[in-house]
Amino acid sequence: MHREDRLGEVYHAHASDGLRLAYVLTGNRETAEDITQEAFVRIGRKVIGLRDLDHARAYLFRTIVNLCRGRGRRLTLERSALARLKPVAAEHQPDLGEKDEMWTALFALPPRQRTALFLRYYLDQSEEQAAETLGCSPSALKSLVTRGLRSLRTTLQGDER
Amino acid sequence: MRDIESNLRAKMHDQLDELRMPDRLPSIRHRARRQRVLFATGASLLVVALAIVGAWGLNALSWPYGEESAVNQAPEPPDTVHFARFNITFSGGSTNTTHVVEINSETRSACYDADIMGATSGHLHRDGQTFPVITFKPYKPSLCVGDQDADILQGIIDNPDAYYIEFHNSSSGGTLTARLGSGNEYSSNLPSEILFAAFDEGRSTDSGLYTMKPDGTNRTIILEGSGFGHQLERPAWSPDRSKVAFNVYLPNREGASDFLNSEIVMMNADGTMRQRLTHDPEPVVGPVWSPDGTQVVFARADDERSWELWVMDADGSDQELLTDGSTAGDAAWSPDSRRIVFSQFLYRKGERDLYNQELFVMDIASRTVTRITDTPARESHPAWSPDGSHIAFISEQGSKGSGLYVMNANDSVPTELVPQGVSSIPGLAWSPDGSRIAFVKTNRWSNPPTDQDHDQIAFVSAKGADLQTIGPGHHMILGIDWR
C-alpha cells in the first residue's frame, strides 16, 4: 500500500475518535481539531512504518494525550500571564458544550481520569486496551476509572443534597 | 456506581457522537511532506555550512565520518562480493612473523594495519610483474592495497601463492618480502577480534573505535573520534566482520556532543567507506546486525517519553517499527534471526518506573512479546550465546551496583557470573565459541570518586570463572562486540 494511502486509511478510521478524545481533554472543539491534526502530522512516519495498522489507533490516542498535556502546560502559563494583566480571557475558558452537571463534573476531573473514563465508557475499550493507550498498567487504569467514578458520584450526589 | 456509569456513557454519546473531524488530510500530508523537505533542505544547508566551516579549519564542527553524499554516491554492489584473508609471512628481518591481510573485492581494497618494520613503500609482485598498487595510509603505519581493478583482485583470490609483496624502507634502504599464502574464502576459523568504543575526556586522539585480539594484542584504533563533539558509541561487527556499524553523537553549537542528535554510521572494518545510514531529527542509537547481515535493528527516540526499536535493511532503507510505545532498547538478535531480546522499562502507577527494567523476547514474525525476567532490579543489555541456549545480561541492583548474569534462554533463573563492578553502559559480548563473555569492568562509582580511567575490558568464562582484565583503561568504554 502506498505510504500516504496508509495515512489516509488511519485518518478516516480514527480521526473522529481522536477528535472526541482531544475534545474531552481540552473542552474546546477548535483546539481539539488542531491537536488532532498535529497528532496526525507527528505520527505520520510511524504509521508508515507500522506493519499492523491497529496499533496506529493507540499511537494516535497516546500522541493526542501528550499534546493535550503540553497544551495544558502552555495554557497554565498563558493563564498565569493573563491573570497578571487582566481577568482570564473568555477564549481560554473551556467550551463545554451544553451545560450539564455530569458534563461539568467530568471536566472537573484530572485529565488522566477523564481520558480513562472516555476510553472505557465512550470507546468501550477493555482495561488492557485503555491501559495501553494511556501507557500504564491495567491495575493503574482500573484505579483511574474507580477514582474518576467516585469523584463524579461525590460531586453529583453532593449537588443533589 | 452503576447509575453513574450508565449516565456517563449516555452523556458522552450525547455530547460526542455528533463530533466529526473535518477533512484536514490534505493539510496533514502537505505538512508532513514539508517537514521532510525542510529537514532534507536543512541537512543540505548544514552540509554546505559544514563544508564552509571545514574550509576555515574549524574541524571540530565538521562531519568526519564520510561525505554526506556518500549514501547516494555509494557504488552499486557487484553481483558477487569476494572476501579473502591471507596469511602473509615475512621472510626477511630478524624474526619470521605471520600476519593477516584481507582483500575485499567490493571495496577493492585490502588493508594491513601494522607497523611493517619501518617500511615506507611497497609493491605487489607476480610472475615478474610489478603492480604499483600499494599505498600507505598517511596517518598510521599501515599498508593498503587499493584502486586496483577487479581482475587483479580476483587473481590474488584465486592464486595467492603466486603473489608476494616487497616492502621498502627509504631511510635504511632495506627491503623485506612478505608472501601471500594460504588464501581462502572468508572463513569462520579466523582469529576472533574484540571491537569497542572508547572515550577519553581531554585525550581526543585516544577516543574512537578500537579492535584488538582477545589477548589484548594488536590494539588498533580504526576510527578516531574527536572526543567531545563526535562521541562514538555502540559499535557492532557485521557477521562476516567486513563492516562496522555504530552511532555517533554530532556536535552542538559549542562543539560538545549533542545527546539529542545521534546518527548511525556504517563503514568497512578498516575505517574506509563510511556511510551515514540515518538522517533523523530524533536520536538513533545502538545498531545491531542480524545474523544473516541483511538487517540492522536499532533504537530511535520516539518523543520525550520513550524509545522504540526499529529494524532497517543494512543499507538504511525500509525502516520498520518493531515495538509499541515501550521505552525499549538494548536489542540483540537470536542466532536463528527469528527473535530479538531487548530491555524495557515497566510502569508503576501510570508512570515509567526508571528503577524497574526487564528483559523481553519478541518473535519477529508474529511480533509476540514475552517477558523473561522478573526482578525489582534493572536488567539490560541482553545477548544471546552463539548457540542460542543462553542469554547473558547486566543487572543493576541498587547500592550493590551492576553485575553480570546468565540465564537459560528457556527459563528465567539467572546465574550470577560477576556480582558487581560491571559497567551498565557498553553492554557485553559472547566469544564466537560461546565459552567466554567480554564486558567492561568499571570503578566509576568508586568511593571516593576518581577522575581517571574507569573502564577496562574484562572477560569471564560462561561458567563464571577466570575473571581477567585486559589492556589499558579508558575514561569510558561505550560499547563492545566480539566476533
Q: Give Rg of chain A in angstroms.
A: 17 Å
Overall domain count of chain B:
3
Largest interface: A-B, 54 and 41 residues
Uncertain runs of chain A are 73-98
How many domain modules of chain A?
2
Q: By helix and strand content of chain A, what is the structural category?
A: mainly alpha
Characterize this entry briefly.
The complex is a heterodimer of chains A (161) and B (483). Chain A has 161 residues and is mainly α.
Keywords:
heterodimer, A: 161 residues, mainly alpha, Arc Repressor Mutant, subunit A, 2 domains, 7 helices, globular, B: 483 residues, mainly beta, Neuraminidase, nine-stranded antiparallel sheet, four-stranded antiparallel sheet, 4 helices, 33 strands, 12% helix
Q: Describe it for me?
A:
The complex is a heterodimer of chains A (161) and B (483). Chain A is mainly alpha-helical and 161 residues long. Chain A has two domains: 1-95, no CATH class; 98-161, Winged helix-like DNA-binding domain superfamily/Winged helix DNA-binding domain (Arc Repressor Mutant, subunit A). Helices cover 78% and strands 0% of the residues of chain A. Chain A has seven helices and no strands. Chain A has helices at 3-26, 29-49, 54-85, 101-107, 111-121, 127-134, 138-160. Chain A is globular. Residues 73-98 of chain A have low confidence and may be disordered. Chain B has 483 residues and is mainly beta. Chain B has three domains: 38-68, no CATH class; 83-185; 194-482, TolB, C-terminal domain (Neuraminidase). Chain B has helices at residues 2-16, 25-55, 70-73, 150-158, and strands at residues 83-90, 98-104, 109-112, 121-126, 129-131, 134-136, 143-146, 163-168, 175-185, 194-199, 208-212, 220-224, 231-237, 243-251, 257-268, 275-276, 284-289, 295-301, 307-313, 320-321, 328-333, 339-348, 351-363, 368-371, 378-384, 390-396, 402-408, 415-418, 429-430, 436-442, 455-461, 468-474, 476-482. In chain B, the strands form seven sheets. In chain B, strands 5-4-8-9-1-2-3-7-6 form a nine-stranded antiparallel sheet. In chain B, a hairpin with a 7-residue loop joins strand 11 (208-212) and strand 12. The radius of gyration of chain B is 26 Å and the shape is globular. Chain B starts with a helix and ends with a strand. Chains A and B meet through helix 1, helix 2, helix 3, helix 4 and helix 5 of A and helix 1, helix 2, strand 20 and strand 22 of B.
